[in-house]
Specification:
Number of domains: 2
Largest sheet: none
Distance between the termini: 92 Å
CATH topology of the largest domain: Arc Repressor Mutant, subunit A
Number of helices: 9
Low-confidence stretches: 92-112
Structural class: mainly alpha
Helix content: over 70%
CATH class of the largest domain: Mainly Alpha
Radius of gyration: 24 Å
Number of strands: 0
CATH architecture of the largest domain: Orthogonal Bundle
Mean pLDDT: 79
Order of helices and strands: HHHHHHHHH
Strand content: under 5%
């Protein structure tokens, strides 16, 4: 059976043709899913979601366009995975953490005494790109390579944004403490 005939039969919902297509694409698609996941469990979830997506969108593939079907499948699956990762990052950035990881202090962000709630508020106030990188690095313990893949940025950009986020947090904390000291001095003068 030619690839054109196979595609036609899959578009007609022929279950045998769908099985043949599944077996043909599985190795390459699972390899793609593994590249974008942290473990086999997540890769299997992506793999299943990708095939569901492929079979639901297969009617959109136009064989007259000079693109190989296999490349089309890999492209739409890569986009699906990246979309899921971006959605996960947005969900992470919207969550408020009740416990501040010990790593915060080790990373030099919490040398001054500041409550967890205040620190979480400060992190939430950062620009989105800084906040997302900081949360993935500290809260989720992602490597910069994993952050880069998740956010669709370079590893260098991940490192830079992480350093800038920490620097901005230090600056904000220092400004708050200076402001607080000024208020304390002003209170003492009035008394």
């Amino acid at each position: 059976m030619s690839s054109t005939e196979l595609l036609y039969r899959v578009q007609q919902k022929d279950s045998l043709a769908e099985r043949v297509l599944f077996e043909w694409l599985s190795p390459k698609l699972f390899a793609l899913c593994r590249r974008y996941s942290h473990d086999d469990s997540q890769a299997k979830d992506y793999f299943q979601d990708c095939f569901i997506h492929v079979f639901s969108k297969i009617h959109l593939f136009d064989a007259t366009i000079p693109i190989r079907f296999e490349n089309w499948v890999l492209k739409i699956c890569r986009n699906l995975i990246l979309s899921k990762k971006r959605k996960k990052v947005r969900e992470i950035s919207l969550e408020y953490r009740e416990v501040l990881p010990e790593k915060y202090v080790q990373e030099g962000l919490g040398k001054q005494i500041i409550s967890e709630a205040e620190m979480i508020g400060l992190v939430e106030s950062l620009p989105d790109n800084y906040k997302n990188v900081l949360q993935l690095r500290i809260f989720e313990d992602y490597s910069h390579c994993e952050i880069a893949n998740t956010l669709g940025i370079s590893v260098c950009a991940s490192r830079t944004q992480f350093k800038r986020a920490k620097k901005l947090l230090r600056k904000i904390i220092a400004a708050r403490q200076t402001s607080q000291k000024a208020q304390d001095c002003h209170s003492r003068v009035e008394n």
